[in-house]
Every structure is written in C-alpha cells, then in structure tokens.
Amino acid sequence: MSTELTKSTSWKALEKHYEEIKNVHLRTMFEKDEKRGLRLKIDEIGIYFDYSKHRITDETLDLLFGLAKNRDIEKRRAAMFSGEKINTTENRAVLHTALRAPKGSTILLDGHNVVPDVHAVLDKMTDFSNKIRSGEWKGFTGNPIKNIVNIGIGGSDLGPVMAYEALKHFSAKELLFRFVSNVDGSDFAEAVIDLDAEETLFIISSKTFITIETMTNAQTARSWALAKLGDASAVARHFVAVSTNEKEVTKFGIDPQNMFGFWDWVGGRYSMSAAIGLSTMIAIGSENYHRMLNGLNEMDEHFRTAPMENNIPVIIGLLGLWYTSFFDAQTQAVFPYDRYLHRFPAYLQQLTMESNGKHITLDGQTVNYQTGAIYWGEPGTNGQHSFYQLIHQGTKLIPCDFIGFKKSLNNLPPHQDYLIANMIAQGEALAFGKTVDEVKAEGVAESIVPHKVFEGNRPSSTFFLDKVSPENLGKLVAMYEHAVFVQGAIWDINPYDQMGVELGKVLAQNIIPELQDTTKAIHHDSSTNALIELYRK
Ligand code: F6P
Q1: What is the C-alpha to C-alpha distance for residues 120 and 114, in angstroms, rounded to an integer?
Q2: Is 523 in the active site?
Q3: Residues with beta carbon inside 6 Å of ligand 1?
Q4: pLDDT tens string 108-161
Q5: 298 has catalytic annotation
Q6: What is the β-pairing status of strands 41-44 and 47-50?
Q7: How many angstroms separate the CA atoms of 365 and 359, rounded?
Q8: 163, 473 Cβ separation under 8 angstroms
Q9: Less Cβ crowding at N or C end of the chain, within 10 Å?
Q10: 292 C-alpha to center of ligand 1: Å?
C-alpha cells in the first residue's frame, strides 16, 4: 500500500482544510466576496475559464498549489515535454506535444530531433489530402474519391469522429465521411450500405495494426471492395493505412507508400494530432488542420509556461483531484453547449478514464486514495431535459464542466441566446439553488415545499470561447490532455499505459474458438460456461 502521498504534509493539510470547508455554501462564499466571480477566473489564450463556482477558498487553492509543487509537477512536466521516458511501465517517452511543435523547433528523443519526422508526415498527409479533395487521386476505375471510411477503434476512432463532427462546418461538403469502429458487423454494413466501392477510400487507422476489431473490419472492407472492383491491385487505390507498424501494414497488402506513420511515443488516446487525424485533414483541408495544430500548440505552451496560479490545465486538474480524492465525488460531467461538440464527452471518456483509471503507483504499490473520475456528458440543452434532475436534486456530488461559445457558426436568432442563457443558468442554479424561504414565498403548498427546494452548493466550471473553430478545438483537447497529466502526476500513477484493457481481449480470444467449434470442451466458471452453451445452441 502506498501511503507516501496521504502522509505528506500537503495532503494532511488539505484533509484538515476539507473538514473546515466541506459544509461551507457557495452562497456564503459569494456573499463574503463580491468580486469572487471576477477573481476566480483565467482569461488566457482565448479561453475564459470561470472557476468561482467551486467549493474552494483562496486557502484551498494555496494548499492545492502546494501539493502540486510538492509532487514536483513542474519537474515532471519538463520531463514530459523534453522526451524523458515518463511512461515507465512501457519505457516510452510521452511526446504528443511534439506532434504540434512548429517546424524548425527541436525536441530530442534519445539524441534524435523528432520534429522534422513529424513535419515529414504532415507534408505527406497534406499532399494526399489535397489529391483526394481536388479529385486528382483516382480510384481503380478512374473515378475520383467521394466517400472516406475511417476504420479504427479507441484512439484511432474517437479523435477522428469527434474532430470530424466538431469541425463539420469547415468540412468539404462534396465528400462523405463514415467511421467504423465496432467489431459488430452491423457497424460496417450500415457504413457502406449506400456507398459505391469505385468512389470509396478506406483509411485503416491502427497504431498497432493488430487490433482485432479494426483488422476484422479491414478484412471485411477489403472483401467488400474487391467483390465490386474485382482485382486485388485495386487495394492500392482504395486503402491507405495510418499506423506505427509497417510490417503488419505491408502484410495486409497496403503499399507502405500509402502508409502514414507515427511513433510509439504517441499514446492511442493522444493521437488525434498524429497521422490518425488523416480523415480530419481530408475533411477540413490542411490549412484548417494546421490551425487546429496551432491551437493545440498554444495550449501546450500555456501549460508549459504559465505560472500555476494562472494555468488552466493545472487548475482543472487540481479541482478534479479535490473532488475525487477529498469529497469522494465519483464522476465528472462535461456539457458542451454547442451541437458540434456532441462527441466531445465520448472522446474525453477515453482520454481521461483510460489514462487515470489506475490504482497502482509508479513503484507498483496500491493507492490508498481515490483516482480518476468517471467522465460523462451530453450536449446542452438536451441533458437538461433528461438527467440534470439528478445533478440538481439527487444525492450525488457531480462537478460539471460547461463549455460554451459566444457565437454560433449558424446565425439563427434567437437560438444562440437561448442556448447560452441555459448554460449560464445551469451553473447559477447548481451553485445557489433555491432556499425554503424562497420556495415558500412563491406560495407553494407546505407539503410540496421540500420537493421544490434546491440545496445548491453544486460545483461547476464554465469555459467560454469565441466560437467553434479548429484552433479552439485544439485548445480544448490539449487543455484536458494536460489536466489528465496533472492528476496522474499527483496521484503518482502512469496515465500513459492501458494494461486494464488487456485481460478481456485475451479471454475473448479464448472464447472465439469455443463459439465456433461447438464440440470443444469448455472449462470456465459455471456462469461463463452457461453463456457459451446458450450461444452455441
Ligand atoms: O484497447 C485499447 C486500445 O489499445 C486503445 O488504447 C487504443 O486507442 C485502441 O485500443 C486502438 O488501438 P490501435 O490503434 O492499436 O488499433
């Protein structure tokens, strides 16, 4: 059991402080400090981050910053940016920040500058996406490509889907994009149901190129395309790969010329700014794609250089830790008040939960504190008419992130006013609630009064940006990436491996032949055996 963190002076001070302020209401905090809402905010690099509606005081912040300093956040951050192998369980560097480093900069990994490699791939992506977008790239029968199907799962799917949806406004309307991830054959079948193979390009996106879901879908896509195109040499015109594994790509039959590479120092869930973004670049064009990279880089630089007290990802990370490890909050909700970001919560689920869903410290001990929260969310205002009831009046403490934009990309008055009024109102209602006296003053029947009371004191952050744009999407993605880093560093866990997904994969491999060969003896537990028997019948 690792007790180092919880025995530290800064942790103990936070525990003591938690006891002192756990019942202090946000109403009191705002009453005591008229300027709280103006003070507890950061307005940097185009993001207005209001964190005044959190159950914190200046002392809480000081103690949290103290904890971060004692856990060597600054040193660990420098280690990540400089290519040290901070993914210790896999002996790898964690350099997704190099993927958006400007041309001409230097980031050394084992003495080798990786930035020129990154830009060589970006240039190859640019060339290819220009050819697809202009119609210069022809399919096997001489037709231009009209449909792009990305086949990938996890980080090789969620980033591309989320970014495509988020930046749809900037997308080439004459191209159709589909995303296939699930090994469920219906996913593939529905994605290609109305597509013409002669005009379809498959991007097989897989860091390892051995993921069973992706390889099964890729083989099915190959058969589907060849059934229509009739000749194996058609693969070269209709299949490209994004991977780190050239050997497997070649084995599949894709010409390495049509492969866009990346490196083992990019984790799957950190790869949307690597070549995994190829579908995004084809959709929005290389200029817009570079705008997204600039946004990511701007947030990287903010995180790397801003003092802790003015550092957006540091504060997000610390607030999340405050609720998870001290208030015992189990979940963190994320509500984008913009339809274009409707897949952002799903993207964040992998980013945060595959990263910090760990209970073993870097030196192999079991933690004695809570780590990574369950992330979830839906776009506003939809959620308001569904699960917000529980957030307002349920028994659980659910910190919320509201993400809103001042301008809509579709100017249809009064929609944006209504949308943003709702977002602002939710934060207000959660924080301040409605007292018994206020309810009574409305003349509500005595027996109904308790039902209409909102206790409030429910925390939220509000992020306000100008509008959905490639830069702003980049900033938001990097913002959460670095908040994950901050928490992982303090909890002393490794956010960059994902060993917890392995066991299920291995067991599925054992079960596949048992489903296919009904004479095979099965030796699982009684429940597993019964389920296999049922399927066999
Ligand atoms: O199973 C989890 C995982 O390894 C993720 O971390 C990763 O993003 C996903 O599978 C897909 O992996 P790959 O890109 O290698 O196919």
Answers
A1: 10
A2: no
A3: 153-156, 206-208, 211, 214, 268-269, 354, 498, 501
A4: 999 999 999 999 999 999 999 999 999 999 999 999 999 999 999 999 999 999
A5: no
A6: antiparallel
A7: 8
A8: yes
A9: C
A10: 23
